[in-house]
Amino acid sequence: MQALEGTGLNEINISLAPVRDNMLIGLTGRNASGKSTLVKWFANKGMKSVSCSDSIRAWLREQEKEINRDSLIEGGRDLRREGGGGILAEMLLDILDGENAVVDSIRTTMEVEKLRSRGDFVLLEVKASEDKRWERLQSRARPGDPLNRELFKKQENKEINSKDEAGQALDATALLADMQIINDGSIQQLNEKLDQIWEKLLKINNF
User: Fold this and answer.
1) Checking DSSP bridges between strand 121-127 and strand 179-182, what pairing results, if any?
2) Which domain does 62 fall in, by range?
3) Residue 27 forms beta bridges with which residues?
4) CATH number for the domain including 164?
5) Listing from the earlier edge strand, what are the strands of the sheet with 9-11?
6) Is the terminal CB of the chain with fewer CB neighbours within 10 Å at N or C?
7) Number of domains within the chain
8) Residue 83 buriedness (CB in 10 A; 0-12 / 13-18 / 19+)
9) pTM of this prediction?
10) Is residue 16 part of a domain?
11) Counting Cβ atoms within 10 Å, is residue 69 exposed (0-12), middle (13-18) or buried (19+)?
12) Does residue 100 lie within any of the structural domains?
């Protein structure tokens, strides 16, 4: 892995990838690391924004269940038990049908495997310190977010490693990332890093 000095960006042989005509960008990372900010940035570049959680939300609505962080986690487990660890990614690929897109909240290695089958997939890990993520989580006050730091850490521990393919495995998924973005600074610093990534992706994908 080659680190680009001063950017917080790691690169794993992505410059050796074949030139492609389409682009599918995936995001993985822990809670409040900044994934939603990246989704908006790529959407402003013309990418369609989707999430592996979209399939879970649709399923929860069909089941007439409340949608919150806990129900999304458990709903994802139920769907993976029924359809395998890559089921959410499979559903997204069918919906996208080759479109350029950014995929938020990739949480299992099998989801990565399914998305790579399209041939134009690049996985970005968004990383931030626990202190910074807790600070952001308190500021955003999103429904379903933990109200104290102890619960925040307890929820996170459930997500980072999985005992079976039905669960989330953020640590194992992060190991498959093609690039890593350290998002501990300002929005301006993040945008500068994203500009560098975008320039490289445009060259790789023949845009």
Assistant:
1) parallel
2) 21-204
3) 124
4) 3.40.50.300
5) 2-4, 9-11, 179-182, 121-127, 24-29, 101-104, 48-51
6) N
7) 1
8) middle
9) 0.83
10) no
11) middle
12) yes
* Distance in angstroms (rounded) separating the CA atoms of residues 178 and 14: 7
Structure tokens at 164: 């079976």
Structure tokens at 195: 């500009």
State the burial class of residue 131 (Cβ atoms within 10 Å of its Cβ: 0-12, 13-18, 19+): exposed
- pLDDT single digits (tens) 24-74: 999 999 999 999 999 999 999 999 999 988 888 889 999 999 998 789 889
Residues 128 and 183: beta-carbon distance below 8 Å: yes
Instruction: Return the amino acid letter for 41.
Output: W
Tell me how far apart the 2 most distant CA atoms of the chain are, in Å. 49
Q: Secondary structure of the chain: what % helix, strand, coil (to 5)?
A: 50, 15, 35
In a domain, 4, yes or no: no
Cα 83 → chain centroid:
20
Phi, psi of 24, deg, nearest 5:
-125, 115
Q: Tokens 């980072």 correspond to what residue? A: 160
The answer to whether residue 179 scores a pLDDT higher than 50 is yes
11 within domain boundaries: no
